[in-house]
Amino acid sequence: MLLTIDVGNTDTKLGYFDADAHLIANWRVTTARRRTADEYGVLFQAFFSASGFALSEVEAIVVASVVPQIDRMLAEACRKYFRREPLSFTAATQTLLTIKTDRPRELGADLAAGAIAGHALAKGAAIVINFGTATTFSAIDASGAFLGAAIAPGINISIDALATRTAKLPQIALAAPPSPIGRDTIAALQSGIVYGAVGQTEGLVARMRATLGEAHVIATGGLAEIVAKETRVIDRVEPYLVLDGLRLHYASLARGAAAPA
After folding, report:
1. Does 233 score more than 50 pLDDT?
2. I want to staple 245 with a disulfide (CB 3.0 to 4.6 A). Which of 4, 80, 113, 209 is the partner?
């Protein structure tokens, strides 16, 4: 049984895979930079107990993190509560993806893991869009090479910036309004944010396809469904894409360990 952990700037996602590589449970918590190893342990125990699993069933743990401040405490918690040494996933440690950027070691672990899973699903060229704290567009060619990315402010960052800098604008539900022409303040905000994200998505996908050629577009992240409902350029939504990329990475390590000398 494999536990994969994706530590993002806003949320930390956990995925639990059975021996047949099926995702049988997943959890999400806020990323807290001052959380102790024992606090992580309390969370682990609560999640596993509520889902009917035992901590002792975990055979391996793979962690991808873009928040270095929490890595030590999280690793300590894995050792203390699962009795397992976590494997750290980075762009430099993986072997499934050829990285053709100017500075390959700078590629974020989440982008690398998402690209691995995206290419595996597309079975060819892919554009992976992650609607998270930032909105990222990753370009992977048909051979599985990571060519580069575009990074834009995330949707929630845009909402927070509006709320912070405009005193009279209300907090809004993130949903597409009936018309792009908002007839009140809330509808106008919803139109600008949702349809603005759609326009950004369609524009960047078109520009990337002009370089890549035809490419399968896969969206992930907490806000992917909202944008995907409003555009045809997104071929599929995979909420657990990064977690699956970590699983594929671990499977490649296991195959390597099993190979004859």
Report:
1. yes
2. 113
HSE on the CB side for 72, CA within 13 Å? 2
∠ CA 131-194-135, rounded to 5°: 20
Active site residues: 110
Report whether CATH 3.30.420.40 matches the domain 98-240.
yes
pLDDT at residue 167, as a whole number:
61
Please give the average per-residue pLDDT across 67-95, as a whole number. Answer: 94
b vs e for 177-194, b when ≥16 Cβ sit within 10 Å of the residue's Cβ?
beebebeeeebbbbbebb
Backbone angles phi, psi at 26, to 5 degrees: -150, 150
Residue pair 124/145 in contact by the 8 Å Cβ criterion: no
Residue 1: closest CA among 70, 46, 48: 48
CATH code for residues 2-89: 3.30.420.40
